[in-house]
Amino acid sequence: MVFHPDLHRRRSMRLRDYDYVGAGAYFVTVCAWRRECLFGDGVDGGVLLNDVGVVVRDEWLRTAVIRPNIKLDEFVVMPNHFHAIFWITDPVGATRWVAHDRDAWSQTRATQRVAPTAGPRSGSVGAIIGQFKSAATKRINTLRHDIDNPVWQRNYHEHVIRGDRDLQAVRQYIVDNPAKWELDVNHPDRV
């Protein structure tokens, strides 16, 4: 078999030349590994979270606690994916906080970078979601006593929210998502 460099590259959904560290509202969807129902069950138009789903919810809530420049908005943990809106409110303040308050930062158990990497820019949407996924994975793998099974699919889907109508539509989509679980494209019967 001959390796073709473009064979395994995914086309980026990111907006070209958009600053994903900038203040604003973002909608993200993160899917469980192979879209398996790891986080709970759809029950009577809602979602009954299991222990793993509770970890996902709790780690998302911690996101705003350990990053004072992040404001959480509407979110939902579904049986095999997660939807959330969050706001980056002060990207410059976030950098100052991390750089000048090392004791508070280290108490959050967040990973500190030691050397430059090719990963997402610090404080960006990609870094925030990557850190959330990493923290949730560590806790879930400890809970499952299994470090070899992945929790998340690679990457995530994001949407830059542009205006009040867009924000209201995305909020409504998240609120309605549990009631529409049987019809959801991420439902195991539809994947």
UniProtKB/TrEMBL annotation:
UniProt signal peptide: none
GO molecular function term, any single one: sequence-specific DNA binding
InterPro entries in the record: RAYT_transposase (IPR052715), Transposase_17 (IPR002686), Transposase_17_sf (IPR036515)
Span of domain Transposase IS200-like: 21-177
Gene Ontology terms: biological process: DNA transposition
Origin: domain of life: Bacteria
UniProt name for this protein: Transposase
Organism listed in the record: Geoalkalibacter subterraneus
Lineage of producing organism: Bacteria, Pseudomonadati, Thermodesulfobacteriota, Desulfuromonadia, Desulfuromonadales
